[in-house]
Each structure stands twice: as C-alpha cells, then as structure tokens.
Amino acid sequence: MADIVAGRAPAPAAPAIPWPSPRVAWWAVIVFALSLMVNFLDRGILTLLVGPIKQDLHLTDFQMSLIMGLAFIFFYMVAGLPIARAVDSISRRRIISIGLTLWSLMTAACGLATSFPTLFAARVGVGVGEACTGPATYSMLADFFPPDKLPRAIGVLNMGFVLGSSCALLIGGTVITLLSATPIVHLPIVGDVKSWQATMMAVGLPGLLIALLMLTVPEPVRRGDTGVTPPIRDVVAYLVKYRGAYGLMTMGMVVNTVLFIGAGAWTPTFYMRHWGWTPGQVGTVMAILIVATQPAGAFCGVRMAEWLAKRGYDDANMRVTFFAALALIPFSVLFPFAPSAEVAVGLGAISGFIGAWTFGPQNAAFQVITPNRMRGQITALFLFAFNVVGVGVGPTAVAFLTTYVFKSEAKLGLSLATAAAVLGPIGATFLWLSLKPYAARIAELRAEGGVA
Predict the structure, then answer these.
(1) Structural domains for the chain
(2) pLDDT in tens, 97-152
(3) d(Cα 385, Cα 392) in Å, to the nearest integer?
(4) What is the Cα–Cα distance from 431 to 274, expressed in whole angstroms?
(5) Contact 104, 152 (CB under 8 A)
(6) CA atoms of 358 and 405, how far apart (whole Å)
(7) How far is Cα 38 from Cα 107, in angstroms, rounded to an integer?
(8) What is the rounded end-to-end Cα distance, in angstroms, of the chain?
(9) This prediction's pTM
(10) Which residues does 365 contact at the CB level (< 8 Å), separation at least 6?
C-alpha cells in the first residue's frame, strides 16, 4: 500500500498468469456492449419524447432539462463511491447484472409517471445503472486485455453506445409516429396510458434479458496490485500526487461532455422546432447518421492512437482526445446556423464522426495509468465528474440559455451555438495542458514495468 501512495508502480502481474483467451475476452466485450446499448436506449429515448411529456405533464424546457440531466445522475451523488469500492473487492459481474436489472425496471417505471416529481424519481432510479455498471465494466476490461489492446476493446465496447443511441432515436421516432393517431394505449394490468408512457415501459424490458446474459461472462483474475481494497485516503493521496495527469484530463473531458450531452439532448428538439420535422423524421435521420459515422470514427480514433503509440508518443490516447475536441469546435458552432436542414445534417455527420475518435482512447487513458486495486474507485470518481457535471449540467446549460438568457424557445439554435463557442475552446485547452503530465506518468510506469 505504501508503494501506491508514494506513487511507485505496483508489481507487474506474474508471468505465470496468462491473459484470458481472445474468445472469452471478446465475448465479454460483446455482452458489455449489449449492456451499454440498453443503457443508452433507456437514457436516450427521452430526447424524442420531450414534446408529449411536456404537454401531458405541463413542464417547461428547464424542468425537462432536469429530468434528462440532474435526475439521471442524482444516484451518483449518493451511492456511486460505495458501489465503486465494492467493485474493487467483490464480483464485478454480479454488480453489473444487479445494476442492469434495477435500471431496466426503473425505465419501465418512468412510464407510470403522472407528474414532474414522479418522473424525476423514476429517472433517479435509472441512474443506478451507470453507478453499478461503469466502474465494474472498465475494471473487468482492463483484466481481460493487455494495455496495448485495451483501446481497441473499449472502442468496440462503445459500439453499444452507438447502437443504443441510434435505437433510441429510431424506436422513439417510429413509436411516436405509429401512435400519433392513438394517444391512449391500453396495456394489460396497467390499463390506459399515453403513448409516451407505453414507449418507456417497452424499452425497459430488454435490459432484464441482458442481465441474465451477463452471468455468462466469467470474472477475470485481478492483475497487478491485487489485495485489500485501499482506503479512500490512499486513493486521494494517489490522485493528488498525479493531479497533473488526472486533474487536467478529467477537466477537459468533463467540459467536453457538458457540450456533447447538452447538444445531444436538444438537437432532436431543434430539428423539430427550427425545421418543422416530425419525431419520426428526426429519429430516422439521426439514427442513420449515428450508425453511418460513429463506428467509422471510433475505428479511426483507435487506429490513430495505435499509430501514435508505435511512434513513441506516450500521450497517444490523450493526444487523439485533444485532436477531436479541437476539430469539433467549428462544426458545433456552425451547425445551428446551417442554411438548410440538409446542410445541418451534413455538419452533424462530420461532428459525429470526429466525436467518436475519443471512444476508445479517452476511456483507455484512465485505465492504463490506474492501479488495479484503485481502478473501480478512480473510475467511479471520473464517472461521477463525467455524469454529475457533464450529464447533469449539459442539458440544463442549454435550457438555461434558451429560457433565461435568450428568453425564447425559438432561439434554441442560438443556445446550442453559444454553448459550443464557449465550452469547446475551454475543454480543448484543458486537454492540451494534460498531454505533458500524462505522458510523463506513462513513461514512469514503463520504466518501472507497469505498462507493456
């Protein structure tokens, strides 16, 4: 334990312990990706249901932003760290399975909401999924794959995000279109509900099946500094010692997440308000864009990180993340001012492609420099910042500009552009500043045998 606090790399894994077979490791990635897909399906379906929910529950844009953001991350603020400590000591597979079950049931419970407080409470329950699954998933992946293979594995994992986001848009748009002439749906046991409520109930069910499938994933052997889970004070001491690497890259990623999540939450509504599109049109077009651009972007990001690493760049993962943040700024600012819907779609496609560069490298960056016994807790702290600030503030920041600064729902596009113009350069600057301390930490670990 003293070695960790002092900053010395933990002893490398014993050579006699082989890495899991590729078949087992990639099966785990597939199941994790399915879990992530359901996660983002449950989370993202709400962005297409803003209109009917606002109308039925008599909500403002600001209240809807709280449902999409703050409510989802509230659970992190209460139980995220205790769950993360459990990740570092007990079965991670079991934690993920329990989390899947709980958030799927709570997604279905959103369909029973009849007011702002009840919908907010149900969305709080959905947040348990991220709190249970994020740290456990990344911790397991780092024990399934060697460090040089980890960015690719995480890149494939994030195809679950791509599929979940696209399915949320496609399913949401399709269901709204099909049920537009049938605002009331009769369901067994439940009775008569609105179409958006029936949609929430339907998308919550697949997660229960994935929870069972998760039990087929073996628990990998913990590598490196295995043993007793360190107390929080040791984790804090380690983070303080390497605050240059952890702090700067976390700040950069969090600021960019505020921008990314805020834009993602309100872009469907922007298309409907500004261009007069129907939910079905928005869902179909945006789903096609996600599937057409983000897998290719994720692959390019992984290849860029691997190419840079082979040429001696210790900061390869963070360098790709910085390049993506910088390149996104002009397209994000120009998107709301596109002269036609077709041009807006084109700008959105480019943004989706560039943004996906970070899927593998960004997440691998944390795992590579984090000791095994601290991996769950440090990942949870990162995800806490990612969700509490990024997911919690992102939708609300855009809604705040629309409601209280520009004071018109018709100026949603101006809110999106303003957020991109202000936050984009700030996030890119933090990431640029993180490159040197991050590379220095990687070099230290390599010299001490902690990185392959």
Answers:
(1) 2-9+16-447 (1.20.1250.20)
(2) 988 998 889 888 888 888 999 999 888 888 777 777 877 888 898 889 887 788 78
(3) 10
(4) 33
(5) no
(6) 32
(7) 11
(8) 22
(9) 0.68
(10) 249, 317, 318, 321, 438
